[in-house]
Batch of 2 targets.
Target 1
Amino acid sequence: MSHHTIEVENLSFRYPDGRLALNDVSLSVAPDEKVALVGPNGSGKSTLLLHLNGVFRSPTGTIRLGGLPLDDRNLGQIRAWVGLVFQNPDDQLFSPRVYQDVAFGPLHMGLPEAEVRVRVERALAAVGMDDYAERVSFHLSVGEKKRIAIATVLSMEPKILVLDEPSAGLDPRARRHLLALLRDLKQQTMLISTHDMRLAAELCARVVVLDGGRVVAEGPTERILNDADLLERHGLEKPF
């Protein structure tokens, strides 16, 4: 089975305070498919994404990435396959220089210095930030930080990209640049949590609607995003 698949079956999750965040969620993403995960605030989108590389673990339900069950035995391999990009890039960038941030993952994979350098250069080129290696991450704009955050994941050469609200906080120009970047990435399966219905329409072939911790609808993007009644019931709006 391809390393690019995501399979979630009957996943439920409660936070320590007892709140049910995910309720019997099932979904799948095929190799190289780009799928948008949409829903109102508090619907469980971020909680679901954080399960896909083991940040959260639930005893209820099953998750398989690239055909491997997400368990203690496979956790290291799955974290190498699944690149998680947080909504706030400041949660992902913590080193003094861009190069150090992007090199962090490959270094901790035990790769030789020469290979790390190649991966950093390749990842920065992929996000159009070739000249930023020696820049100070803290001084970058939000859009630049988001690109560097994606580069930190690409340097790990993941099979799957999981992105939480990638266009949040971006001005129109930065948003267009990000959309072009994600469209041009051809080698990764993507699951993208977003409130940006235009991004979903322009980038993803399929949409999954999550509300109250449950999958309430899923299907081709055009059909879901043209169903005004469905979108209104779940706190969403048509993109145009």
Note: The chain is about 35% helix and 25% strand.
Target 2
Amino acid sequence: MKLASYFLSSIFIKLSRIMTAAVLYLFLGIGALHAQSNIPTTAEYVLVTEFETGRILMEKQKQAPMKPASMAKIMTSYVVFSRIKDGSLALDDQIVVSEKAWKMGGSRSFLKPGTRYSIKELLYGVIVQSGNDAAVVLAEGLAGTEENFAIEMNLTAQKLGMKNSNFTNATGWPDTELTTTAEDLNILATALIRDFPPESYPELYPIFKVKSYTLNDIKQGNRNPLLYGKSAAENGVDGLKTGYTDESGYGLTASAEKNGLRVVMVLNGMKSKKERSSESARLMDFILREFKNYKFFASGTKVDEADVWLGRAGKVGLVAEGDVSRVLSRAERMKTEIVVSWMNPVSAPIQKGQKIGELAVRMDGKIVDKIALAADRDVEQLGMFDRLGAALSYLILGASSVPDSQGE
């Protein structure tokens, strides 16, 4: 009994030491996951996020009430897209222009009263031309009245988690009850891109990057300034929508994808078209230059190897059970550490896929993400006499007595 106790005690001490040694530190760079809110901007309301994870890259008054103006038409588009997705509406379906729609002021598609237009034409009118008349036609065609359509807009907002928005019309036309936030518009834009991916719905989201559209022999250009020049060519800007009223100021909800990183940006409360154009381009350039999607390990990649205790192989690979990637700024990249840990050696038998370790991403000493590490193959256990011999050898001579490969 004493011998057995001594044997178990010795093994525990050695395993504890080996386990401590089997912690791999990879300093890759990352600080705290704080938004870059100290970047000066003339926009009153700002929220920039990374599309896949929703990580905030920049913010300013993201939950403060504001007016969306024509950025409300993103919700109008989302509702129409949803009808097309569920099959209750088709792009070649037609709707008649009402007197109310024809009389709409502000930006218009110059639709003719009593004339039928296809859903496709009306979507281009709403998204590219920012036509208030086209938005009202769609609202009346889908819900009977614009008021009924606004109810559907608000139900959709609730489903998407837009907690601080209230839509009163399909256009963003000034209304005391109309309200949203930069955060909610960001949620909406993200959902639209996610729920109607271009590869599945090539006739829907890609409308947002069309630079001009002609309807009734009247050609109008897209008001999104980032679709032109360097931003479109180098930054991969492909949407979404501008907005302006006296109360809201000049706003823009935009998205861009570059080098595998998609960002969604909402700006509002700027004082002129020129300011909206220059400020949105400056911030988009900065974000896409400063942040990158760093892919440290792909799912299935062998991260390290563990020693095997009493097995027919001396080593077993540790593979990541998921992708290990983070969107980081350059400054954060220099402070990141990835910690790989496992109980070493791993006792046989071992089954392929068996969890035997863990990879943790640490930022400022805090774990922010974990990925399981699994065995990359089966390892059989040694026979009884071989196990006894290996255990005694380990007890007397230490870890150095265990060969790298046993039974192979």
Note: The radius of gyration is 29 Å.
